[in-house]
Amino acid sequence: MSGRVADAHTFVASLRASEQQRPAFAAIVRQTCALALLVAASLHIAVGLDHAGSMFGNLSFAAGVAQGVFATRMLRRGAGALALRAVVLLNLVLIQLYLLNVTVGLPPAIAHSHESGERTVWMFTLAVPGAVEWQGALVTAAQITSAACAAWLSRPTRSR
Rounded to the nearest 5°, which phi and psi values hold at 57? Predict the structure, then answer.
């Protein structure tokens, strides 16, 4: 029985040590999140400018600006729980839109595809799915990273 008690005390001590190390690790996660947001923002803004005038270009530019604002806020003074949750939500929505665009297609007004054409799926008119390109893969990886980091940062800490 004393072995189990010693193991429990060791486990509790390791939890306390990890809680004490949390601020340093949180700073690294915050910086990683900001960097991932800046990567995604820069590519979204570049694509938005490249497709200026179209709905896709406008949405891409707006997404890039939003990600850039969140990244700047995270670097300058940290972000509150609401901002962190907004980062998670924004990035999950953008990831979903990208995955829909390259798998089944999106409505022609907002789709991005280098192939012309439309098709009907369950009474919805969709553009031909776009190809997976390196920019999309890089942005998606950055968005997954920033969403995961923001989700980790937004979790509550134990109070003593």
Answer: -65, -40
